[in-house]
Amino acid sequence: MTIPEPNILFLVLDSFRSDKCVGENKTAITPNIDSLIKNGIYFQQNISSAFSTLLSTSSILTGLYPFQALRSDRKNMKLFSNTTYIQLLRDFGYYTYAAIPNALEFWGLAKHFEDKFVPSYKELILSTGFGEKVIDQLNSKKMREPWLMYAHTMDLHELGELPESFNDSKFGLNRYDQMLSSVDIWIGKILQEINLDQTIVILTGDHGSDEASYTPSMKFVNYDKKPLDFDIKAQKFVSNTFWFKPNLSPKLKFVRNMIGKCLRLPQSILTKIRFVQINRQKISIHEKRILMHAIADVEEIYDNLIRVPLVFSGYNIPNEIVIQNQTRLIDVFPTICDLIGLPPRKDKIHGRSLKPYFDGETMDELPVRIESTPKWFAPTSKDQLGIRTSEYKYFRNRNDPKKDVCLFDLKVDPFEEKNIAKKYSHIVQQMENILSTLDDDFALQDDFEDMNEETKEKIETELKKLGYI
Question: What is the 3-state secondary structure (H, E, C) of 136-187?
């Protein structure tokens, strides 16, 4: 008797941090996530390729690092690889469903899904209707088996839609953990609608979050309310004028830009004053960095921003296994395909199957290429590029290998507070050699298809909503 392929439920919690899934830093109440971990395999040192939803998701869906998965004209990005794992699963007989932010659809990341829901990110919050949509879809009896459902939730991204009943310290010491407690309830409701004996469940995040680091001792910044933003307040006064109009004459654009610079000036001064105040506090370097990021919204690639949970549970998945070795988000779909018997890809990818861990075997660790969003794409980015192993974290300026060089010994300095790059230049060189080896595989960006102006404007609007611009 032929056993049918299992269904696949792939849940991505945007901004889900590894230390908020398990460990002493977790104060959320998550019985359903805990059950998935207990009845499955948990990868506790899983690393995203980037602190960016776009870059990270491109890696997840292709098994490639962002520099190969995406192509750019230094103004926009789009999916380069014509082959995603979604297409391979379709060819293998799977019916593919997705709920994914429309910004990712604009970049082509959702193009291979057959049935997709691609709204603005605010419509992907479980507690305000999205959870019911997922349950209705699973209950609809219209899903053709075997199916893959890829659901990207945004509850943890903004922390703005916390249900009132969870606004209580018993659900977590900060708003992030309280929101995670709320999300866990919905995960439980969703799991009730599927047969775990016939479904592989994957739970992960695309990247981490600074906001999850808030503790009651951090009085300087209130994470429940973002610091005063002069730009946003000023825009409210001019929102009905030329401020948001896309088609302006060059003269009006110049006027708008000058007004923007004037409005940003007091914000810049205030930020510098706050930085001075933070540096005077007798707190750790890590805590100072968290507070500065809260004020300036700076994008970097420290572990709290790229280390995410990864759980496999359900159909034929072994129970109560915790893998401490470093793994990568680019390994997830190669692992799924190996578990369901889909033949290996013939083209070259960076990801690999983690199935040997499921079978009780050992594997050599592989380094992870990590990066922030390019500076030209996200102005708040530090424009960093680097390599992470389970021992060391290395990163530097994307375009200048001698600029902003950082090296941390993760075994003795998990909060990345002591830069040892100058002392251990030979390790820096080893990391550069790894980067060079990966970059040698780089394909020339000579086939970028220009986006029309309407698409560019839509992308810019969604980027602003998501906080990347």
Answer: HHHHCCCCCCCEEEEEEECHHHHCCCCCHHHCCHHHCCCHHHHHHHHHHHHH
Identify each DSSP E strand in 233-364 by its residue range: 307-314, 321-328
Per-residue pLDDT tens over the stretch 294-310: 777 778 999 999 999 99
Same domain, 374 and 356: no
Domain range for residue 157? 7-214+301-366
CB-neighbour burial class of residue 247 (10 A; exposed 0-12, middle 13-18, buried 19+): exposed
- Number of domains forming the structure of the chain: 2
Domain annotation covers residue 243: no
Q: Kindly report, residue by residue over 16-41, the tens digit of the pLDDT.
A: 999 999 988 899 999 999 999 999 99
In our burial notation (b when 16+ CB lie closer than 10 A, e otherwise), range 263-296 reads: beeebeeebeebeeebeeeeeeebbbbbbbbbbb
| 427 and 327 in a common domain | no
Q: Out of 322, 339, 366, pick the residue that ends a domain.
A: 366
For residue 428, give the CATH number of its domain: 3.30.1120.10
Q: Is there a single domain that holds both residue 385 and residue 325?
A: no
Q: What is the rounded CA–CA span in Å between residue 23 and residue 26?
A: 6
The CA radius of gyration of the chain, in Å to the nearest whole number, is: 22
> pTM value?
0.85
User: How confident is the model over 358-381, as pLDDT tens digits?
Assistant: 999 999 999 999 999 888 777 778
